[in-house]
Design goal:
single chain, alpha+beta, OB fold (Dihydrolipoamide Acetyltransferase, E2P), 2 domains, six-stranded mixed beta sheet, five-stranded antiparallel beta sheet, 6 helices, 11 strands, elongated, disordered C terminus
Length: about 270
């Protein structure tokens, strides 16, 4: 291991003791049956069943810290599965790492309406670059979040990392209600507009939306970009009902799926 990896391993040993239960994300497959597992910034090689999907969260018991860090995979007895809070935390960490990589990328990052889940987005950047690696991790984490937490409840979260130049990416949550109504919420933070919240509803061809911002005078310059997230097969045409001031901080998009005890911590991660 290099010095940086040794430092992270030392920090891992300082924080943990044998018997601790930790959660790790499958980063990538080294070779059939062997995977790199990322836990608190440390990558550990583990022998697991072949065919596991990168991005999957697993629970491990620490059986030894010296001379090597040794983990035991916990069986899926209900306690070892990913919690909603863990899924959200993993996504937020991956998203933050991607935004940091974008901010420091040597490649030119022009505005793009492509979502994180669109394979065309990854093709814009050199393979194995820090930005491509961060994007792959964020894509895998978002897929796990959707598959395990949101889709079972009729919702999907997507992310548009290059939608607004000079600003963090835009999150979009779509929720299909039992009555057929499609609800759409989107969050953004922009240097000129401040925090931005878009809300929309669609039923068939009838679709409308509103946009609110801390500094609504900046919204006219952003509307054409924000409209890209309204491109949905369910609602081909949207009508703008208003662009007004945001008078209070909106609830984070994932908060309703995590329970009241998680809302404060989630809000701190977003601010």
């Amino acid at each position: 291991m290099n010095d940086s990896a040794n430092d992270r391993a030392a920090q891992f040993r300082a924080r943990h003791s044998p018997g601790d239960v930790v959660r790790g994300r499958i980063a990538e497959e080294e070779r059939p049956g062997f995977y790199w597992i990322e836990i608190h910034g440390v990558r550990l090689l583990a022998h697991l069943d072949p065919g596991l999907r990168p991005g999957r969260l697993l629970a491990f018991e620490i059986t030894s810290l010296w001379p090597e860090i040794v983990l035991r995979l916990l069986t899926d007895d209900g306690s070892s599965g990913p919690t909603p809070q863990g899924l959200a935390a993993d996504w937020l960490a991956a998203r933050a790492a991607l935004e940091d990589a974008l901010a420091h990328a040597s490649e030119a990052c022009e505005s793009s309406p492509l979502s994180l889940q669109d394979g065309k987005l990854a093709a814009l950047f050199p393979r194995r670059s820090p930005l491509a690696t961060a994007m792959a991790r964020a894509r895998a984490s978002l897929a796990v979040l959707n598959d395990n937490l949101l889709r079972p409840r009729g919702a999907v979260l997507d992310y548009f990392p290059l939608l607004l130049p000079g600003a963090p990416g835009v999150e979009r949550l779509t929720v299909r209600q039992p009555d057929g109504m499609l609800r759409l919420l989107a969050d953004a933070v922009h240097p000129d507009a401040g925090r931005v919240r878009l809300t929309g509803a669609a039923r068939g061809a009838d679709a409308s939306y509103r946009v609110q911002a801390e500094h609504p005078e900046a919204l006219p310059r952003l509307l054409s970009s924000l409209e890209a997230i309204l491109v949905l097969a369910d609602a081909p045409r949207w009508s703008l009902l208003g662009a007004t001031a945001l008078t209070s901080a909106p609830q984070p998009l994932l908060a309703p799926f995590l329970g009241p005890s998680s809302a404060l911590g989630l809000r701190r991660r977003y601010v």
